[in-house]
Amino acid sequence: MTYPAVPGTVYFVGAGPGAPDLITVRGRDLLAQADLILYADSLVDAALPAAYARPTARIVGSVEMHLDQIVTLMREAAQAGQVVVRLHSGDPALYGAIHEQMAALDEAGVPYEVVPGVTAAFALAARLGVELTVPELVQTIILTRPAGRTPLPEREQLARLAAHGASLAIYLGITRIQQVVDELLAGGAYTPDTPVVVAYRVTWPDEEIIYGRLGDIAAKVKAAGFTRQALILVSAALDPTHKRTDRPTSRLYDPAYSHRLRRRAQS
């Protein structure tokens, strides 16, 4: 069943991490019905809107546009009764800058809907074949970024977040890799031996993945020359020296564990 688009509506759609086939079915359906597709062409592969758009659709890249231009284009198309798709990389709710776009559409009385997408952290975990919440090892995932032109609240400084020792996905920080490492080590829970993976353009054709530890990852990243579109993933769950059979297992499928939908197996 095709997800029906409503004329006069703006749809903020998550394009996923890069590979065109990792967009959701709903997102694909909306692209196929759109009259206007406004996409973040610095982060989203042009092949994605081109693959699903109908021939009459207008496809516009937004890399050189500022907020007022973006909002005006969406508002005018929606008020003319068109279906508008605003295509963001990853998931729109994470560093997608959609809050200010939605606020402007609210002011203009234009309805909108958000369609989630696969974010790079989970695409990378899938690519590595790892679970980021291993029982008795790590049960929390933190998605964050380092301070830069956009400051962080004091309570969200990397050193404070690192104190939890959780699985930590750091976006928009690759150009500050040494600063990131220093702050993570200052938190006290991670050590120079804590495993780290850095992925450049995960799921894209030119994807590159670097494996390391906090003690050596900055040098490896600088040698690789990554300056954008790279994710830093830190987690005890990434340790390659631990075999999966050595780790505690979830009780979810344990025959000795009962819950309201399954009785405990009798010995």
What layout of secondary structure does this protein have?
Blueprint: E1 10-14, H1 25-33, E2 36-39, H2 47-52, E3 58-61, H3 67-79, E4 84-88, H4 99-108, E5 112-115, H5 120-128, E6 141-144, H6 158-162, E7 167-170, H7 177-186, E8 195-200, E9 208-213, H8 217-224, E10 230-234
Could you provide a short overview of the structure?
The chain is of the alpha/beta class and 267 residues long. It has eight helices and ten strands.
Largest sheet: 5 strands, parallel
Structure annotation, total helices? 8
Tell me, briefly, the overall form: globular
Oligomer: single chain
Cross-sheet strand order for the largest sheet: 3-2-4-1-5
Low-confidence stretches: none
Structural class: alpha/beta
| Beta-strand content bin | 15-25%
CA-CA gap between termini: 46 Å
Q: Give the overall pLDDT as a whole number.
A: 92
Tell me the radius of gyration: 21 Å
Fraction in helix: 25-40%
Let me know the number of strands.
Answer: 10
